[in-house]
Amino acid sequence: MNKINILKLLVFITIEQWVAGSASHALAAANAQFETATSIESKAISFLEKIASNNKESKLEVEIKHLDPRLKLRKCSNTLNAFFPTGSKRSGKVTVAVSCSSPVTWKVFVSASIYEYAKVVVARNTLSKNSIISGADIILEKVNISSLRRAPIFVIAGAIGSTPKRTIRAGSIIYEDGICMVCRGDYVQVIAKNQYFDINMEAVALEDASIGQMTQVRNKESKRSFNARVVGRNQLEVILTP
Questions:
Q1: Which stretches within the chain are classed as H helix?
Q2: Whose CA is closest to 183, among 235, 122, 239?
């Protein structure tokens, strides 16, 4: 190859490199005008993780559904804002809105899943209907409670002394509505008290109830019905006001 051809080849390569570099710079400059999908996702994640860190009773794990990377939204000149849309869920499958107010207003929705893990009461053994649950029958296990449609029991004391309404298989979660500390038809002891005195009476439970719940009972002697709070196995109390 003679010198002229070599010179032409070098010039051609230089022009190609210049064109490629210019195109790259032009693309970068164009992209700089837009908010990246990554930055929007990061804002949604930080918003959800802040909520997770404020939850002391359980552990939350967050999973984001990625946005289309071809998304073209003007670069925000101020801080992106993330929030839950009005009426949206706060656990399970959720939606986070990420918005910008300047130089143009826009809003995009990011889909995510929040998995909530907590220790709940689980049957160690199979518990038969109408049996009395003891501490040896139950344990605490960490489970994903995000998809549970019923309220589980979170403390051992909330189940000890209670009665299963139906058979609970070993390894099953024990739910609040699956047991009763006071069961319909049971004879119960009620203490009515104030700061000066207390009165003990026998009554009949008219409905199922768990620890802390208000339930209706009927006095065995007077046959009058009233509400009392469950404080233990077939034990209830009424606080009298002056």
A1: 3-31, 37-54
A2: 235
